[in-house]
Structures are given as C-alpha cells and as structure tokens.
Amino acid sequence: TKISWSYFGVELISGLLVALVPMGLAIVPAVLWVAVFLILLLITLIDMRLQIIPDELGAALAILGISLILVGGVPYDWAGHLWPAFGASLFFAGLIAITRGRGMGWGDVKLGFALGLIFGWPGTLLLVMLAFVIGAAVGVTLIAARSKNLKSALPFGPFLALAALIVFFFGPDIVSGYLRLLG
C-alpha cells in the first residue's frame, strides 16, 4: 500500500528539529530542548486528530521544564518560571470558565503550565499572545475558505506548539523589537 505524505512530513519536521534546535547549546540543554519540541510535535499531531492533549505528555514537558531550570538551560530562576506557569494556567482556566468549556480544554491549561515552566518570563506571555494571533489567522483563513464556521472546534495545542518554536528561535529579538517600538 502507499505511504501517506503525512508520514514523510512528520519525519522531515522531526529531523529538522533535531538538527536545528541544539545549535549553540551545551549537550544536556540541547537534548532537553530537542525532547521538548519532539513532544510538542506529538501533542500537535494528537490534538489535531483527536482534539485532546494527553496528560502524560504535559507532565513530560513539565519535567523537562524543571530539568532545564536545574541544568541552566533557560535564562531565569525558579520564580521567573513558576509565576508564568501558574499565570498561563489561570488564564486558560479563566477562558474555560468564561466560555463554559466551549472555548478551550483542560489539556490546554496543563500545556500552558508546562510551557510556562519551560519558557519563563517574558517568553510565556509572548508565546500565548503569538498562539492566539496564529490561531486567529488560521481560523479566519479556514472560515474564508469555508472549511470551518464560527461554531467549529479548532485545537489550540498546535498553535501553542508553533508559538513555542517561534519564541525559542526568535523570542528575544521579538521582545527587544517590540520594546524599541515603544521607545
């Protein structure tokens, strides 16, 4: 039988992550960061197909976040990672409460916590904002193409994962560029 192009795409993306993420990092943080992005790729695939984010994968990301803090693979101390983790979780939980569970799932809350541990401040804030911008752009495009409507479900995990990749590679440049704009 024929093999779907999606398998090739996943293999290609995985290879690119393994090749590009570790550039300029010490070996232990590089391995941890590669693991973070491979798990985010897995979360993306599962969320797109089943619209769930497995608790085990969120827990694995949280453990990787703690590990990155312990080995110095991230720039801030514990407080610089714990507050954003709880802040992201509370923000997403608030969205669940406001939308009565129709706007976001609990997997996104747990993923927000893990990403907060990993990216700290201000990376988590930038990541969440980018995820919403990317999600809105994709949603509007799908609605314009008549693939989705305003009541269609759209998994949010893939947008968080893509935003995490953008923040990893370009976060400091985006933040400093934004601050320069503000003067």
Layout of helices and strands:
Blueprint: H1 5-20, H2 27-50, H3 55-71, H4 79-99, H5 106-144, H6 157-182
Task: Kindly describe this structure.
The chain is 78% helix and 0% strand. The longest helix has 39 residues, at 106-144. With 183 residues, it is mainly α. The radius of gyration is 17 Å and the shape is globular. The chain has helices spanning 5-20, 27-50, 55-71, 79-99, 106-144, 157-182.
Mean pLDDT: 93
- Beta-strand residue percentage: under 5%
Which overall shape is indicated by the principal axes computed on the Cα atoms?
A: globular
Residues in helices, as a percent range: over 70%
**Low-pLDDT segments, ≥5 res:** none
Q: Based on helices, strands and strand pairing, what is the structural class?
A: mainly alpha
Q: Quaternary status of these chains?
A: single chain
Largest sheet, strands/sense/barrel: none
Computed over alpha carbons, the radius of gyration is 17 Å
* Secondary structure: number of strands: 0
Distance between the termini: 59 Å
Give a quick set of tags describing it.
mainly alpha, 78% helix, 183 residues
Brief account:
The protein is mostly helical and 183 residues long.
